[in-house]
């Protein structure tokens, strides 16, 4: 079976990314990637109010727009398959900046509120047949803040409840996550074209969504990969 080049954490103009969904698909398709997930932010309601005041309403998918986001993803997924044989998995990043957790949901079917607690979010993702990933659990930004501090502080409680934990995010490699031997994954957290050069995941499985999801869950044939540009094909 072949190894698939994957990236499961990508933002577009639906939240705070620079590129449209179609432009993202063309960028990854031309580079030769096999599987990508589009995971725009849904902000918790308190942070959304603050962000709307600060930046205008371009940083989060609102509940009323979720169906339109899904429909654009389904539509572009068909284009990606026909043009590049690339799988596009619809997703979201549940972004709770009030309680400090960022959670990726892949292949979720319905809107999920980031105002819910972590356990409720994970149960909801599972009930919708999705995959849950703890985002950048160990990252610290320049001011020393950790956007997923709550997940890392409660790692023992959540360890096995997530399908995978990011062991690498963009340029950062979290050896502390690796040492825990949690199921792992590496993603770009793509917002701008320059973020294409970053840590990614290789999975050995068939090229379809159910097989990819199962490969993340079992985490047996998985590898880290540092993409440095150029064509993969
Ligand atoms: Zn995040
Ligand atoms: Zn992100």
Describe this structure in words.
This protein is 32% helix and 26% strand. With 233 residues, it is α/β, with parallel strands linked by helices. Strands 1, 2, 3, 4, 5, 6, 7, 8, 9 and 10 form a 10-stranded mixed beta sheet that branches. Helix 1 runs parallel beside helix 3 (66-84). It has one domain: Metal-dependent hydrolases (TIM Barrel, Alpha-Beta Barrel), CATH 3.20.20. The protein has helices spanning 21-31, 45-55, 66-84, 118-127, 149-153, 155-158, 175-179, 209-218, and strands spanning 3-10, 35-43, 87-96, 101-106, 131-134, 164-169, 172-173, 184-187, 199-204, 222-226. The structure holds zinc ion (2 copies). One zinc ion is lined by residues 9, 11, 93, 189.
